[in-house]
């Protein structure tokens, strides 16, 4: 008889971006993200004792089907965890995972997937060693630490509302090794925020995020980018606390454009934005100037545009999309999400 652990964990959208990393998944700069709600991964793990002659460590199904392309990343993740969890090699993991959003949709699937798997592992560790866990905060901090080893952005997905990952002197308990929850530091305005994702392209990126991170190691603007991220974070934290939407918009959009500017100025350079990415950005800026509605855009490492705005403006935003960007009302072209309450344990 096997033991089962199961978690739903959300993706997140970074406001201050993490771009560039040091060995062992240590970030080059601190980052801050908003936790999403509807875009999440549901992962279950059945734990079976491995026999002495059993070579394979896990079986993986994605939405009910084998996905061999995902297996190297999972194996690498488990190998990294062996250092901290020597008992892990004694178990065979039957992993079943499913997303509520399409893969390569501009939503960080590695963040939700790796955080869900990490939480399943911490839950099983708690089952094996119940006296080792003192509090929920310790549980999620450990989950964030483990998730980071699989995907840096995953370290921020285990907390509700917002999370900061990376050592930042002005924030108590911040660390390069795990994220910390920021829900208590966020004004109610940002707890009722929407994130609409315009799917400009659902294809696989021409340059992976991992390759982009590596290019930062020798980037001409590396030190300036690190300084900028710290400066933005220093300004963003009080804006989030007071509900300063104007400052939030300024930092959010500057970070998005900086991220893609770094890609375009790396060696070799590359361009992920598409013509329609720019059209949507211009449309958002024009609509904001005309109506004074405090909407903002951000972009992850791809062509798809995230539209962030207070939920109280949802009716006006829907009308604007219908009149100005009606093609994005087609199925699969617009994902409607909002700030969420974090992971959920199902077993």
Brief summary:
With 347 residues, the chain is α+β, with helices and mostly antiparallel strands.
Textual characterization of the structure:
The protein has 347 residues and is α+β, with helices and mostly antiparallel strands. The protein is 36% helix and 24% strand. The chain is built from 9 helices and 14 strands. The chain has helices at 71-81, 109-128, 136-150, 188-191, 209-215, 222-242, 245-264, 275-291, 314-324; strands at 3-16, 21-22, 26-27, 31-49, 58-62, 65-66, 91-99, 162-165, 179-181, 193-198, 296-299, 305-310, 334-338, 344-345. A hairpin with a 2-residue loop joins strand 5 (58-62) and strand 6. Helix 6 (222-242) packs antiparallel against helix 7. The model has no long low-confidence stretch (mean pLDDT 95).
Tags for this entry?
8-stranded mixed beta sheet; 4-stranded antiparallel beta sheet; 14 strands; globular
Order of helices and strands: EEEEEEHEHHEEHEHHHHEEHEE
Structural class category:
alpha+beta
Roughly what is the average pLDDT, rounded to an integer?
A: 95
Report on the biggest sheet: 8 strands, mixed
Q: Into which percentage range does the β-strand content fall?
A: 15-25%
The DSSP helix count reads 9
- The value of Rg in angstroms is 20 Å
Bin the helical content: 25-40%
Oligomeric state of this protein: single chain
Count every beta strand, where a strand is a DSSP E run of 2 or more residues. Answer: 14
